[in-house]
Amino acid sequence: MALRVWDPIRDTVSLSDVMPTLFENAWVRPGSVFGGSVPMMPLDVEESGDGYTVKASLPGFRPEDVDVTVTGDTLTITAQHKEEQENKDRNYLLKERRFGKVTRTITLPSSLQTDSVQARYENGELILTLPKDEALRPRQIPITSGQQNTLTGGQSSAQVIDHQPAELAHA
Q1: What is the pLDDT of residue 95?
Q2: Which of 67, 81, 93, 105 has the CB geometry, 3.0–4.6 Å to 76, for a possible disulfide?
Q3: If DSSP codes are grouped into helix, strand and coil, which group holds residue 133?
Q4: What is the spatial distance between Cα 89 and Cα 92, in angstroms, rounded to a whole number?
Q5: What is the pLDDT of residue 34?
């Protein structure tokens, strides 16, 4: 085997060659740094003109294990599994189920009507309907003319009068 002399110019890897793999290998799943896994609560948040719909995946939780709090524009969902009593007589071959609390807090773009929030839980999914504050909802503004006729978006109370000269009307 022949010895090769190290050439720093030839043996250097360019930054552009390393960047794609650097970022691919840099992403770490939450909790994997410490060897465990952090319970996640995936959410879908949808906005409509009237408010928001939030869907949270909470498989294995019962409705009484879930707590929802709304303050202004902030939504907090907390769910907690109670750990089973430790039984020393059991010989587990595998024990992967996690117990404990998972919390998710998000800030929505506008304030909410906290007294009108609705929550429904079915098949491991929490579905929240969060209406926007009335003051922040878009409203149709009526427009009035000086003649006390009310006009609304694109409607007119004026009559169209055809002013054609008589000789053109008979032509």
Answers
A1: 78
A2: 105
A3: coil
A4: 10
A5: 41
Residues pairing with 102 in the sheet: 79
Q: Count CA atoms closer than 13 A to 53's CA, side-chain side.
A: 7
Q: In angstroms, what CA-CA distances link 65 with 39, 58, 99, 112, 129?
A: 15, 10, 12, 24, 19
Mean pLDDT per 10-residue section of the chain, whose length is 171 residues: 67 66 57 48 92 93 93 92 76 80 91 91 94 78 74 49 51 49
pTM: 0.56
Burial 69-86 (b: 16+ CB within 10 A, else e): ebeebebebebebeeeee
In the three-class reduction of DSSP (H, G, I as helix; E, B as strand; rest coil), residue 168 is classed as: helix
Sheet holding 118-122, edge to edge: 43-47, 51-57, 125-131, 118-122
Tokens 């878009």 locate to: 138
- Computed from CA positions of residues 29, 31, 36, 39, in that sequence, does the dihedral angle turn out positive or negative? negative
Walk me through the domains of the chain, giving residue ranges and CATH numbers: 37-84+94-136 (2.60.40.790)
Q: For residue 24, what pLDDT is reported? A: 58
CB distance 111 to 132 below 8 Å = yes
